[in-house]
Design a protein that fits this description.
Blueprint: H1 2-22, H2 25-46, H3 51-70, H4 75-96, H5 102-124, H6 128-152, E1 156-158, E2 162-166, H7 167-187, H8 194-222, H9 237-255
């Protein structure tokens, strides 16, 4: 399974980076929207939308993307709303464990998960190298959490939601991200306050962990192991982007260049 996961990433990551660097901006926005549509189909299954509700949800996302594309002055408000959602509403949901059902609750939550991520990815294409460097925070956090948790994990982070995650894994993730933040600061952003970079990177990693847990809660509520089967070794699109949905809007809020 690990080899299959690595092989899938070895294919997807260069393709993603190549598109980010070389696609025209409108084509990049469309490519990201197609990824959002795939994730939306998986979301619809996790929250038990019927066929009509699923189409309403996807059409609503398409309209939302079009409006946000045309209104760049709203960007900061969208990123801020997303960050508030992930910092306050989602931890409450992880505690109370509500079942998202129906087009109202499931649709609003799905829009808050997917639309800001799409917008952030679209806007951050203006600095693709920076976007990839900041996305690496999530990838480093995820890999370090897996390694540290596998080696030293004893105390479960959220046993009723994701039994495989541990506090030791979280600690390993934060240590690895802190090291990366120091390297990033001195090699790339030496003019930026070091404490700001460190706090930003640790916050991005923390939101990534929350995003991962939130998707695990949805899957457990739906009684499935993966959100889909599209990506060998990973499951569905949501399984691959769960941490990014939570963290990328904060990345854009803190680092996007106007």
């Amino acid at each position: 399974m690990l080899k299959l996961r690595i092989l899938t990433v070895a294919v997807l990551l260069p393709a993603f980076a190549g598109c980010a660097f070389f696609l025209p901006h409108a084509a990049w926005a469309l490519a990201m929207f197609m990824a959002v549509l795939l994730a939306a189909s998986e979301w619809a299954l996790l929250v038990s939308f019927d066929n009509v509700q699923g189409w309403i949800f996807k059409i609503g996302l398409a309209c939302g993307c079009w409006v946000l594309w045309r209104q760049p002055q709203w960007d900061w408000a969208v990123y801020l709303a997303s960050t508030v959602f992930w910092v306050f509403a989602v931890p409450l949901a992880l505690w109370r464990k509500p079942r998202l059902r129906g087009i109202a609750a499931g649709g609003v939550a799905g829009a808050l998960v997917l639309l800001p991520m799409w917008l952030a990815a679209v806007r951050l294409q203006s600095t693709p190298a920076l976007m990839l460097a900041l996305l690496a925070v999530v990838w480093i956090s995820d890999s370090a959490a897996y390694g540290a948790g596998h080696a030293w994990g004893r105390r479960k982070l959220a046993p009723s939601i994701s039994p495989g995650k541990s506090w030791e894994g979280v600690a390993g993730a934060f240590v690895a991200v802190a090291v990366y933040a120091a390297v990033f600061h001195f090699a790339w952003f030496p003019e930026t306050d070091f404490l700001f970079v460190m706090a930003a990177f640790l916050s991005i990693a923390a939101l990534g962990i929350i995003g991962d847990l939130f998707e695990s809660l949805l899957k457990r509520s739906a009684g499935v192991k993966d959100s889909g089967t599209l990506l060998p070794g990973h499951g569905g699109v949501l399984d691959r982007i769960d941490a990014i949905t939570a963290s990328l809007p904060l990345v854009a809020l803190l680092f996007a260049q106007s």
